[in-house]
C-alpha cells in the first residue's frame, strides 16, 4: 500500500509478520533482496532495533523496503502494489524498483501507479480514465498511439528515448537515430 503498516516491535518482527516462523537467515535474505539490509545494519541494534508504531524513526523509503522484505519473505503467488513509489525520493525509488524486479519474477503482479517509471517495463499496461479502461499494451505499443499514455509519458519524461525506447514523432512512429 501507499502507506504500509509497521507496528511497534523490532525490525525483524515487522518483516516476520509475513512468515512468523522464519529463520533469521530467511529474514536477512529477504532484507538483502529488498535493498533494506544496508540501512538495517546501520541501526543501533540491527534487526533487533525497536521501532514505534508507524515507524516514525524510518524514512518513507526505508518503510517501503521493509514492506517489500515482508512480501519477499511471504513469497505469494499474487502481488498487489498500490503506488509503491509515490512518496519516495529518487534514491529510495531506485532501491525499491530494483527490489521489485526480484520480487515480481514469476509472480502475477498488479501495479497501480501514476509514476510511469514504476510500470514502464510491465508486460501489459492498462490505462484508466475515470474508472474506464481507455488503452492497453506495452509501453512501446502505447507510445505509438496518440493516447493518454503517450501524453502522460511526454509530460513525465519529455521523450521516449530517456527510457531506452525510440523517439516517437507526432504521427506516433519510432524515429531513426540520426
Shape descriptor = elongated
The number of helices is 7
What is the H-and-E element order?
Answer: EHHHEHEHEEEHH
Share in β-strands: 5-15%
How is the main sheet built?
Answer: 2 strands, antiparallel
- Which residue ranges are poorly predicted, with pLDDT under 50 across at least 5 consecutive positions? none
pLDDT averaged over residues: 82
Extended strand count? 6
Percent range for helical residues?
25-40%
Ends apart, CA distance between termini? 43 Å
The largest beta-sheet arranges its strands as: 1-2
Structural class: alpha+beta
Q: Please compute the radius of gyration using only Cα atoms.
A: 19 Å
Any descriptors?
single chain; 178 residues; alpha+beta; two-stranded antiparallel sheet; two-stranded parallel sheet
What would you say this structure looks like, in words?
This protein is α+β, with helices and mostly antiparallel strands. Helices cover 37% and strands 14% of the residues. It contains 7 helices and 6 strands, in the order E-H-H-H-E-H-E-H-E-E-E-H-H. The protein has helices at 11-16, 24-33, 37-40, 60-74, 90-103, 139-144, 148-157; strands spanning 9-10, 50-51, 78-82, 108-112, 125-129, 132-137. The strands form 3 sheets. Strands 1-2 form a two-stranded antiparallel sheet. The chain has a two-stranded parallel ribbon with strand order 3-4. Strand 5 (125-129) and strand 6 form a beta hairpin. Helix 2 packs across helix 4. The longest helix is centred in the middle third of the chain and has 15 residues, at 60-74. The chain is elongated, with a radius of gyration of 19 Å. The chain starts with 8 loop residues before the first strand and ends in a 21-residue tail after the last helix. The mean pLDDT is 82.
